[in-house]
Fold each of these.
Amino acid sequence: MQVKDLTTDELKNLIRETVVEALGDLLPDPDEGMTVNEEFNQELLEIQQRRKTGSRGISAEEAMKKLGLSV
């Protein structure tokens, strides 16, 4: 198949895939090989579960408390 035979959407997808692949080659993942500690992993799982159930997250007051900021 030649480029001239592609639809506009097919050409856009080809370009998008090519750019993503090129960026992946040029910009390595800075987090590669790193691990997430168990506490943070648990927090991420809790956030994921809240989103599944439609909960909007934690209050600003709770966020400030977690960050050690005064209300």
Amino acid sequence: MTGMPAVLSVELPGIPLFRRGKVREVFDLGDQLLLVATDRLSAFDVVLPNGIPGKGIVLTQLSAFWFEWFAERIRSHYLTTELPESFDAYRTLLEGRSMLVRKAERIAVECVARGYLAGSAWAEYRATGMVAGVRLPSGLRESERLPEPLFTPAIKSDTGHDENITFDALVRQVGQEVAEQLRARTLEIYLAAERYARERGLIIADTKLEFGWLDGEIVVIDELLTPDSSRFWDAERYQPGRPQPSFDKQFVRDWLIASGWNQQPPAPALPPDIVEKTAEKYREAYRRLTGRPVPYLDVRER
């Protein structure tokens, strides 16, 4: 990897900021939004002081790949990654890490599909034998494939962490019909993507989706099946009963835990080797899933 700097913030004078997330800056263009994925990285719900160079490009390009792959089956807010001429002054900063989307009304629920027992689901299962109100067979091991994929909705709690809720709780929040649509579309996306990824040697253990209202219809919004929103495992190295090597910020989490950090702000800066390994894992996920180099990154480094 070259010494390209991480893009940690984006300012576009004259273009109003719609909102700032942990990773994305969202700009208001009227009936459209400009989503710009920075190279910021969060772990344990805290944004780290140094980012992962090129990460935002991988997130944008992989989301665009999936939005286009699903286009005939699942409607989304996605329009294009091509920037209009009006953004020429910012093209060097924005190109590759930006997408234009339709403005949708977000449904305030994290929609999670889980095909394997990992992360918070594994912790909940060990404590209760259930995941999001669904009782699972006894004796399951960490990372084991579930009898069938689960839909486990989540909401933001007062502490800022995602909190798993039951399907009945989701019904109380959004209504029966909307809850059933969210479940059906989440599982449809997960099952189709999981089959596709397996053919390319990757397991999608779980993924987090967001939906919104657009023209009276529920559509997929934000990002789709990226290393920030999904657990990607190497199918050849998969072995239930333990944590799996993954194509995401695993190196970061492991290093932070070993450092003794108390998971409260401020977070420590990451050493260069952890940044390098994490950047390569993000890129490898893109290459494995799409079968092509990462635009704007791999070509730049030849």
Amino acid sequence: MVGKGGAGKSVIAGTMARVVARDGRRVLALDSDLLPGLSFSLGAGADPTQPPLGEAAEKDENGRWRLRKGVGPVRAVQRYATDAPDGIRLLQAGKTPQAGVEPIMGSLNAYYRVIHRLPRARTFEDWTFVGDLPAGPRHVAFGWAPYAETFVAVVQPTAQSALAARRVARIARMREGVRAVFVANRVTGADDVRHVEGLVGEPVMAAVPADEAVAHAERLGVAPVDHAPDSPAVVEIERLVAALAEG
């Protein structure tokens, strides 16, 4: 999930992961966003104060971060991922504390190394990865989602949101074999959908409506799929999951 900050990436990512897991798939949720969001949307509660992956990192004799000996992608998920509802495993890079990113540099470096090894790990061949990336194109450009075969650019019906999504999609599509699709979020009707499609220059794969039930779930810090499973937004995200599978 990529796009502008506040576009609704975490809500859609968390709900998609729950929908896929309930369909019988093994799901690994991957969170590189330094701000909280995905864990609440998954229904996994607050993020840990100390990112578990911090224990997987150490510095070498030159002061550079590396994974501890014996820690590969499988062991990292086994040891340092946390449990979420419906059997989902959640691996997080860490959240920025008040002191800045310095306290979580070990976790960030460990996360980056782990995700680059995930696509080659046979253990995860039949798993679905759902990633939530920070706002903007930087993390896409610098390889923070090497596991991704599809980038879902979430767009609100504003020019700023569409511009960010277009940039991210353009960068994602530079990788061979990767597709990028657009999803309109918090739309209030067909005019909003047409407006988004005009701004991004192509049809959207789904149009998630503005939904007070989802907004209420966010205020409560709970998963929309638990709080309002039959709400219009959740139903449209379910349709999005089916459309992505067919694609």
